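We append the chain.
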Amino acid sequence: MAIINFLSLVNEAADFFQESSRMIVTWDGRNALVKPALEHQDQVDTAILNRSITYGFLIDSVLEVLTNAYGIARDEGRTAIDEYVVRKSIAKRCPYVMWC
């Protein structure tokens, strides 16, 4: 059984980000963070168990992607952070292996 629920993690971070930035993170934008993370489930769970990373670190990693995505969306005149913007943000700066 997985220790980290990536959908919950991403939704928690995205909801917080939306409230603070006033920019919507679409469902496909959220899924663009969840889907690649699932491939690293065992690695992330092991790192959590070994205390080499924390839940807070993972939240901060999602927030970093979203913060960079916000800048990209703003620069391109977009009104929301969608899959395209998330992927572009990750390509620009990947904060943790599960999104690289």
Notes: The mean pLDDT is 94. The first strand starts at residue 24 and ends at 25. The two ends are 24 Å apart (CA to CA). The chain is about 70% helix and 5% strand.
